[in-house]
Amino acid sequence: MARVVVDVMPKQEILDPQGQAVANALPRLGFDGVTSVRQGKHFELEVDDSVDDATLAKIAETFLANPVIEDWVVRRVDA
Amino acid sequence: MTRVGVITFPGTLDDVDAARAVRLAGRDGAAEAVPLWHADADLRGVDAVVVPGGFSYGDYLRAGAIARFAPVMGEVVRAARRGMPVLGICNGFQILCESGLLPGALVRNAGLHFVCRDQWLRVENNATAWTSRYERGAEILVPLKNMEGRYVADAATLDELEGEGRVVFRYVVDEPEPGQALKRHLGVDSPNGALNHIAGITDPTGRIVGLMPHPEHAIDALTGPSDDGLGMFLSVLDALVAA
Question: Is residue B96 predicted with pLDDT exceeding 60?
Fold first, then answer.
């Protein structure tokens, strides 16, 4: 068994109004100095040893992310 | 008789109205609405398919991302590639984009609000299987209701869509004053910040069309702001009879 993390982020050129809303809220809450926020998704997968890196990449590219609008990174982490 | 399939996924809302629009368009008995179930890899011999609006599978992950893998969608993609007319409305448009039948994607409205209003659209292309009953340049009034309605695509795809006349509907938006160009993409004038104010597009064959607004909610004065949407369903019946 292994833990796999997949991070999915909106591409840089895609307007991220949710991240902007978070960034705009921070000064109102008294947190200054944060110049930009982008909001994405974080998946944690528990996989058995039969799942290879190519399969994980396929899961990320065809399902967890939409490559038209999002970039993704897969990494194995110690459980 | 022409048979038009209407798909129901868990979470679909507008299948009943879409079926009613098909029946109204074929009121002399020329058309039948055929219910299709998401879990059945079977199109029941239909001549065209409407993928209606709603929140298929709760819009979990991304709008349309899970519906794309439903057994019925495999059949829709196969039939569409053979030339069967397919219309995706709202969530249906999102599903067609996720399926790769149409390019681009629909993302969160720029203003971050769920937009629900009657919306004027301009018909930019009346050569598709779903828009032949309209005059090019005509303006029609249909309801718009969504959270992820902002059409985006990369620059090359946008150039291709515009160059080939594949933008079918555009939101009618007041032109901003000089110097206000930014406002157009920040949700001030546009309902959602869609690139080039795109409301609907078609594939290169003109047989697959997707749009965010809801023509099936504008088919008679009793239940909608106009009957402007009925033309889409009349158009496809014309196309199928002519075929």
Answer: yes
Interface with chain A: mutation pick from B57, B62, B98, highest number of A CBs within 10 Å: B62
Backbone angles phi and psi of B145, in degrees to 5: -155, 105
What are the backbone dihedrals phi and psi of residue B25, each rounded to the nearest 5 degrees, phi first? -65, -35
Concatenate the DSSP letters of all residues of A5-68 into one string. EEEEEE-TTS--HHHHHHHHHHHHTT----------EEEEEEE-TT--HHHHHHHIIIII--TT
Residue B224 touches partner A, C-beta closer than 8 Å: no
Side-chain-side CA neighbours of A36 within 13 Å: the count stands at: 4
Enumerate the residues of chain B whose CB falls inside 8 A of the CB of residue A13.
154
Of B28 and B187, which is predicted with more confidence? B28
Compute the distance between CA of residue B13 and CA of residue B214 in angstroms, rounded to an integer: 12
pLDDT at B187 over 60: no
What class has domain B2-242?
A: alpha beta
- B169's tokens: 């509907």
Closest to A17 (Cβ–Cβ): which among B62, B103, B112? B112
ipTM confidence = 0.86
Phi, psi of B63 (to 5 degrees): -60, 120
Instruction: Find out whether B72 and B35 touch, Cβ atoms under 8 Å.
Output: no
- Chain A residues whose C-beta is within 8 A of a chain B C-beta are 10, 13-15, 17-18, 21, 63-64, 66, 68-69
Helix or strand holding residue B163 (H, E): helix B155-163
**Superfamily of domain A2-77, CATH level 4:** Phosphoribosylformylglycinamidine synthase subunit PurS (3.30.1280.10)
Are B154 and A68 within 8 A, CB to CB?
Answer: yes
Identify the residue whose tokens are 């809801």. B214
Domain ranges for chain A, please list them.
2-77
Is the CB of residue B183 less than 8 Å away from at least one CB of chain A? Answer: no
Active site residues of B: 90, 214, 216
Dihedral class, residue B55 (left if φ above 0, else alpha if ψ from -120 to 50, else beta): beta
